[in-house]
Specification:
- By secondary structure, the chain is α/β, with parallel strands linked by helices.
- Among the domains are: about 210 residues, P-loop containing nucleotide triphosphate hydrolases (Rossmann fold); about 270 residues, no CATH class.
- The chain contains 25 helices and 14 strands.
- A six-stranded mixed beta sheet has the order 8-9-10-5-11-12, sandwiched between helices. It has a four-stranded antiparallel beta sheet with strand order 4-3-6-7. A two-stranded antiparallel ribbon has the order 1-2.
- A hairpin with a 2-residue loop joins strand 1 and strand 2.
- The longest helix has about 30 residues.
- It holds the Pfam family ABC_tran.
- This is ABC transporter G family member STR2.
- Heterodimerizes with STR; the resulting transporter is located in the peri-arbuscular membrane.
- Belongs to the ABC transporter superfamily. ABCG family. Stunted arbuscule (STR) subfamily.
- Its main location: membrane.
């Protein structure tokens, strides 16, 4: 990136262009990236809003076939820049232009040509390394044959150095698996199985020891050498890792402080007037300098960003302290005149300091009469360069095409050969001269998804069944609870008395059964919340559709839900000698379990963590239980609360079980010597006595199950996006 200051009618303007090698053969280019957020700030006891630039006018590039590292102190904007380049900032929030190999990047292009490896490893713990990569191949390499997919997976395992752990589980806190470095390499392999041309990695060495971190970066370096554009954020890399980083972008306060190769850092500091002590790391030294300016009361990192753009030397901090001390001894005068006097004294001394300290080596050897314009422009530019004016003063302008090409000096002879940098302030560079030529249209990217709808669903179902088979605790715990409770209910409510108390006891059995089935699905809350992060990672680059995931999840769990309902129904039905068709009794329990499971999964997709998920499910359970018709019949509930009876998922299974038991003229007890028939019980509870009501209740429960699944899909499709707003 380079910039020129041009004096037009006495006004200094900054013109920013991409600075990249003349032989730049492709990669990612970005211009004037700015990301502004609104934050609340408390001033004088009142809350006010202010706009803050997390990224400000960042212009640069990442060469193809190289590893570009984004570095800087904490809060510099490293991850924000990575998210902006990867399309993970919501449309309209990020300003600027990003292009890949000359093509303007949009959401569709970035999804199909890139991969983003998150800082956390989001993998299924009970899949082996081979299975994890094979499922990734199934999702991303749909048209290939199984043999070709296996060949590519085996080759990738060898390239990533995972041969020894090929059949080892990924593992987690409770299951022993691969090491941290191996898990990170598996995460990388999952996202590069389809050979993306653009690879983003957020802190790939975080949490790893030095040896594992070096191994990960070595594999990333090999990926770049195979032709991919690799961009990663990294914090405090070791000296061995630094040798593998081809291109550096150093940020501070959302602004670009340096761009170039590792060997250019020392030269950059020397031009700044800073010498790197022998034996010290130049990157760490530059970051220390950045933090010194950031903590200075007189200037900030803006002057370093200006130096990176234009070559205008930042004032030495020692000089700034001397100027501050001299300006503080100005003779006293009235307040207004004193302020003016101090401002003039301070400004003139800063101007003289900058004129003396400016890097004169940047002057053009072909235009020696420009020194006067350099001095004037530099002084004026610095006096105008304040944080409050930065946003408005620096505008990207396009120079006329007839401007002559200036002379240049060279930074690096390997990574950035013949990198152009301006020597004079009397010209501007045309940004179009340095942008990669485009062919006017993007190449055909193929279908959005690699597999058909049915193919995706089948792959997801296979993976779900493997996970359930290897983690049977969730399914078996539900089955054991329902089986045990079935035996307990069968012994407690056996042989009810032919009296009103016997009828009350039987009603208590039915309502407890409904509550038991509702509570048995609560453990699905953490199950999906843990899997949600994997879903976001996989769907962020079109591995499969959200609808396929929803259908596969439903189909996978239906047999297990049916088995749970059948085990409970078989025990209590025969032991308690219940009336009505057994099939209907089982169907009500099964669909009740299905609708409840759908509701719990929907809630878990909305809440951010399982603690809030449990709290929400318990709260809704209490409400549904209160309005299901057991405590107050539907007619006795106040009219303004009757809608709760209609939306309660406990209402319909409760009424269904009662209709199956009591739609008969048989007597179940007596009241004052008068027999009480089943129809009498239903009428007293304001529950329908027609046979068709039984069918309607089942259909309504199915409707609720479908509705909750549709809501679940909607959350996945439109709300589960890993993007900044």
């Amino acid at each position: 990136m380079n910039s020129k200051q041009v004096i037009t009618k006495g006004v200094v303007e900054t013109v920013i262009d991409i600075k990249k090698p003349v032989n730049f053969t492709g990669g990612l280019e970005f211009q004037s990236l700015t990301y502004t957020v609104t934050k609340k700030k408390k001033v004088d006891g009142k809350w006010s809003k202010e706009e803050v630039d997390l990224l400000h006018e960042i212009t640069g590039y990442a060469p193809k076939g190289c590893v570009t590292a984004v570095m800087g102190p904490s809060g510099a904007g490293k991850s924000t820049l990575l998210d902006g380049l990867a399309g993970r900032i919501a449309s309209g929030s990020l300003r600027g232009k990003v292009s890949l190999d000359g093509n303007i990047v949009n959401a569709s292009l970035i999804k199909r040509t890139s991969a983003y490896i998150m800082q956390e490893d989001r993998l299924f713990p009970m899949l082996t390394v081979y299975e994890t990569l094979m499922f990734a191949a199934d999702f991303r390499l749909g048209p290939l044959s199984v043999a070709d997919k296996r060949h590519r997976v085996e080759k990738l395992i060898d390239q990533l150095g995972l041969s020894s752990s090929r059949n080892t589980y990924i593992g987690d806190e409770g299951t022993r698996g691969v090491s941290g470095g191996e898990r990170r390499r598996v995460s990388i392999g999952v996202d590069i199985i389809h050979g993306p041309s653009l690879l983003f990695l957020d802190e790939p060495t975080s949490g790893l020891d030095s040896t594992s971190a070096l191994s990960v970066i070595e594999k990333v370096h090999d990926i770049a050498r195979n032709g991919s554009t690799v961009i990663l954020t990294i914090h405090q890399p070791s000296s061995r890792i630094q040798l593998l980083l081809d291109h550096l972008l150093i940020l501070a306060r959302g602004q670009l402080m340096f761009q170039g190769s590792l060997k250019d850092v020392t030269h950059h500091l020397n031009r700044m007037g800073r010498k790197v002590p022998k034996g010290e790391n130049p990157i760490e030294n530059l970051i220390d300098v950045i933090q010194e300016y950031d903590q200075c009361d007189f200037v900030g990192v803006e002057v370093l960003a200006e130096f990176a753009r234009t070559g205008m030397k930042p004032p030495l901090l020692s000089d700034m302290e001397e100027i501050s001390m001299s300006s503080s001894v100005v003779a006293p005068s009235p307040s207004l005149n004193r302020e003016k006097s101090q401002d003039f004294s301070y400004s003139s001394q800063v101007s003289r300091s900058l004129n003396d300290e400016f890097d004169h080596s940047l002057r053009s050897p072909y235009n020696n009469n420009t020194s006067r314009s350099w001095s004037a422009s530099n002084s004026a530019a610095f006096l105008k360069f304040t944080p409050s004016r930065l946003k408005n003063e620096h505008k990207v302008k396009k120079a006329p095409s007839h401007v002559a090409s200036p002379g240049f000096y060279t930074y690096s002879s390997e990574i950035m050969p013949e990198t152009p940098t301006p020597h004079s302030s009397d010209y501007t560079l045309n940004e179009n001269d340095y942008l990669t030529p485009t062919n006017g249209s993007q190449e055909h990217l193929g279908p959005k998804f690699s597999n058909s709808y049915i193919g995706e669903t089948w792959i997801l179902m296979r993976r779900n069944f493997i996970n359930i088979r290897r983690t049977p605790e969730l399914f078996l715990s539900r089955l054991m609870v329902l089986t045990f409770m079935g035996f307990m209910m069968a012994t407690m409510f056996h042989n009810p008395k032919d009296s009103l108390q016997g009828i009350t006891n039987r009603l208590s059995f039915f309502i407890f059964t409904v509550c038991l089935f509702f509570f048995s699905s609560n453990d699905a809350v953490p199950a999906f919340i843990q899997e949600r992060f994997i879903f976001i990672r996989e769907t962020s680059h079109n591995a499969y559709r959200a609808s396929s995931y929803t259908i596969a999840s439903l189909i996978t769990h239906m047999p297990f839900l049916a088995l749970q309902a059948l085990s409970y129904a078989a025990i209590v039905w025969f032991a308690l000698e219940l009336r009505g068709p057994f099939l209907y009794f089982f169907l009500v329990l099964f669909i009740s379990l299905l609708s409840t499971n759908s509701f719990v999964v929907f809630v878990s997709s909305v809440v951010p963590n399982y603690i809030l998920g449990y709290a929400a499910v318990i709260a809704f359970t209490a409400l549904f239980f209160l309005f299901c018709g057991y405590f107050l019949s539907s007619e006795d509930i106040p009219i303004y609360w009757r809608w709760m009876n209609k939306i309660s998922t406990m209402t319909y299974p409760y009424e269904g079980l009662l209709m199956n038991e009591y739609q008969t003229n048989d007597a179940f007890g007596s009241n004052d010597g008068k027999p009480v028939t089943g129809f009498d019980i239903l009428r007293s509870l304001h529950i329908g006595t027609d046979e068709i009501k039984k069918r309607n209740n089942v259909l309504i429960m199915l409707g609720w199950a479908v509705l909750y699944r549709i809501l679940f899909y909607s959350i996945l499709r439109f709300a589960s996006k890993n993007q900044r707003s």
